[in-house]
Each structure stands twice: as structure tokens, then as C-alpha cells.
Amino acid sequence: MPREITAFSNPLIKSVRDLRDKRHRREQRRFLAEGLRILTEAREAGRLPVLLFFAAASADHPLVRTLVTEVERAGGDAIETTPDILSKLSGKDNPQAVVGVFDEFETRLNDLDRTAAGIWLVAERLRDPGNMGTILRTGDAVGAGGLILIGDCVDPFSVEAVRASMGALFTIPVVRTEWATFLTWLRTGPGQLVGLSLDTEHDYRGARYAAPTFLLTGNEAQGMPSGYAAGCDLLVKIPMLGKADSLNAAVATAVMAYEVLAQQRD
Amino acid sequence: MPREITAFSNPLIKSVRDLRDKRHRREQRRFLAEGLRILTEAREAGRLPVLLFFAAASADHPLVRTLVTEVERAGGDAIETTPDILSKLSGKDNPQAVVGVFDEFETRLNDLDRTAAGIWLVAERLRDPGNMGTILRTGDAVGAGGLILIGDCVDPFSVEAVRASMGALFTIPVVRTEWATFLTWLRTGPGQLVGLSLDTEHDYRGARYAAPTFLLTGNEAQGMPSGYAAGCDLLVKIPMLGKADSLNAAVATAVMAYEVLAQQRD
């Protein structure tokens, strides 16, 4: 049976609300995900929250009931609370029906089976949580094997990244590593490392991408360091016909990933 | 000569700060743009702010000096102010060097020359300002003739949209209109209306796009209404191989737009 919390002062409420902050996520090794759609994606991917908050008004929704049942069966805690407290937890005036607290999970490079997918996404020093989530969402759509994060990237477990991923955080393996470690791992097996760059004459449509292709996207403001470019098997550029000299990082990743997908499906 | 404002209580500062709010933008018919890069893009596109705020520390930057000279030559006001006030105007702790206040501008459907570009972007009920700006930025990159907004879209002059556009708001015409008006205008001349949809068997890579192609992207959560789909010449879908059933709206628009561009360049 779900228990009830109706007091803002409850210490559990404070500790959950703290998960909006990176430092607290690191300490608790937990993160927040909001909304019935995303929590249902998570459940279907085999990830259940350790804490599930919902309001009385949504308690009878069949997907909420399924979540409550499965969370409790897995030893988690399903907690009925007030709309005000849900607002406080989600930081939004109009909270979605449910908020889940998940244990952080991690995938290591050596856990990846590179032959399982034709496309792998690699991002270095990605700074924007919206871009992080959107790249995960695109990765899911193109059937990418995972997202490999290089260097000092924004936290993929931040509330904004989880939201923008629309649940893909739960379906796509995410690895956090460093450039040298990644490159060493990459060279122990098959795989073509393709970097997006402005300093090349190779149009992205003219190149050929063999599976598995690892697509490297650099930092939003600076692109990738020249040393990284030197480590790539191929640099390609996306044509820019206007005044601006670059695309949004998530957009550039998606344009590339769909070109690779189209070639590999042919 | 630039004048100086150092008091938070100055009524001009309040009226500029108010421009972060949609209601005040509508009343004043002005909007904010921040950052030397975006303001320089605007200047190069022939758009100068009526008010330009900068801090003493950046007064000697050559691009700031050019902006000050041109703003004053055009009858605008260049105002030196404190870092604190710049923070207040930009809503950020670490404000970029300059903040500009621009008169709103508008393009009407009948001002567009549809034969001037092979690609036109059309978005209906776009709700997210980041998506709005990113679609403008992509539009610039693919050489789109303009962005046509249908129905109740987020304000393209919001601070977040201007920022995400990276200056493309100043280089790409934006038209705000209604569906019936748009469709009537469209049918008075050449142009293929292509809608992104989940309810079609046509893969976007298999279709052929003749110039001018008008690419219609629907609302982030709901896609386009079925009546709009019926008005399209062609519906296409982007393959979704994962768990999710849709892409981010700006990503989907970009994947489509680059496919059209690739075909039209061949």
C-alpha cells in the first residue's frame, strides 16, 4: 500500500527536491525523472524508481497503478502526496502526474558490444542539458548502440536532460569517460571514428559510413580540439549556406546520424 | 557620445528589463538581443538596436565601437552602464558584453518571393522557444527563404528564441499567419507542401522535393492536425527505430531540411 506524505517539512521531500542540484545527485547517487510518459518508458526498459510520488487525482490511472504495483513489488516506495508537494518536487507550476527517484546507473566502455549497432554517438564537452537529452532522444530513434561522453560534459541525469531525452536516458547506454581511454578502447576492435568539423572539404553526404560508425560531436561553442580531430578516421562537414558558421550540436548530430542510418539501411 | 546610466532605479532600465516578458514586448513592440556575436550578426544584416547597453570593460572592443558608432549614426542611443545593470538586463549572472533593444519587425506573406529559395520552413503551434530559435538557425544554414509560423506559436522575439537562433532571427524572414491564409497564399503560385507525419508510409529519403519546397512541422506534443495533413501535397516520415515515437521538432525539421537541400543541390 502506498503511504502518504502531505507535509512540506518532511525530510524525504527535501532530499528529493535537492536532486535538482548536481552536488546532491552526486552525493545521493540518485536522480529525478518526471511525467507518466517518461516513467512508463523507464519501466518498459526495466528501470523502476526507488521512490514514486503521485497525487490522489492520478492514483486511478492504469499506468500509475502499474507503476505503483511494480515499484512496490521491487521493494521501492510509492508515495501519495499533494499537488503542491508535487509542484515543489518538479519545480513546475503544473506538475505532471508522477515524479520518480531513480538510482543512478552507469555503463562502462567494456560493457558495450560495438557490433550490436551500426551507429554510436560520441560527444565531447557537451554543455547544454537540452542538447544532451535531445541527442539521447535522437540516438534512440536511429537505433544507436549508446552515447559515449568525453571529458567535462553536462550531467546526463540532470532534470533538464532527462526531460529532453523523453525517456531515452533509460533505453540508451550512456558511458562517461576520457578521450585517451575512449581512443584506446576504440582501437581494440572494429569501428570508424567520424568527426564533425568545419575544417575539412569532405561533405557528409559524399563520405561512406561502415558499421560500426562512431560519430563525434564537439563542444557547442568551440567544436572539438585539434588533437581529437587528428584521432578521427574521417572528418566531414555539413554544408552551411547562410551567415552562421555552425548548427546547434544536437541538430548537427541528428543530421549526421540520419545520413549514416540511411546508408547502412541501403 | 554614449551616455551613462549607473542607477538601477533608472526608469529606462526597468522598461528594458520588462522586455523579458511577452506582454511588455507586445506593448512596447520591442525586444532584447544579447551578446556581441548576435548583435554583430544583426548589424551585418542591417538591423541596428535602438538602444545599446555595454559595460566600460568592453567599450574598447572594436566590434563594440563599431556598434556604438552605427547605432548613434542611425539615431539610436548607446548607453554605458555597470556590470550589475547588464546582469539585470540580461537575467544572467555572467552577462555577455552587450545588450541591444530592437524594434520588432515583421514580414508578411505577400512580401515573400517564393522563387528566391528552394526551401521554406513552416511550423505550426511551435511551443518551445529553444526549438523556435534552433529552427531559425537551421533555416539560415540550409539557405531557407524564411520561416512561416502558423497559429499560436511561441514568440520568436522571446529572449530564449533569439539566443537559440544565434542571430538567425535577423537574417531569416519570419511570417506569423494562420493556416487558411497560408494555404490560400501558397496555392497562388508554385510550391510543394510537405508535411512531417507519423501516419504515412512514405520514407523521407524516398520522396522527391522540387523547389520551392515548403516543409511543415507540427506541434511538439501533438504533431499537426489531420486537416492540415489533408492540405499537404505529400506526407513523409522519418524512420524511428527505437522506443520513442517522435523526434524533437527542431531535429526533425533539420533532418528533413538537409535531405531537401541535398536533393536540390544535386
Offer a quick outline of the entry:
By secondary structure, the first copy, chain A, is of the alpha/beta class. Chain A is built from 11 helices and 11 strands.
Derived from helix and strand composition plus strand pairing, the structural class of chain A reads alpha/beta
**What is the helical fraction of chain A, as a range of percent?**
25-40%
Q: Report the β-strand fraction of chain A as a percent range.
A: 15-25%
Mean pLDDT of chain A: 94
Return the domain count of chain A: 2
Uncertain runs of chain A: none
* The CATH homologous superfamily of the largest domain in chain A: SPOUT methyltransferase, trefoil knot domain
Describe the biggest sheet of chain A? 6 strands, parallel
Q: Tell me the strand order in the biggest sheet of chain A.
A: 8-7-6-10-9-11
Q: What is the radius of gyration of chain A?
A: 20 Å
SS summary, helix count of chain A = 11
Assembly type of the chains comes to: homodimer
Query: Which shape of chain A, going by the Cα principal axes?
Result: elongated
CATH architecture of the largest domain in chain A: 3-Layer(aba) Sandwich
**Head-to-tail CA distance between termini of chain A:** 52 Å
Largest contact between chains: A-B, 37 and 37 residues
CATH fold label of the largest domain in chain A? Alpha/beta knot
Q: How many DSSP E strands of chain A?
A: 11
CATH class group of the largest domain in chain A: Alpha Beta
| Sequence of secondary-structure elements of chain A | EHHEHEHEHEEHEHHEHEEHEH
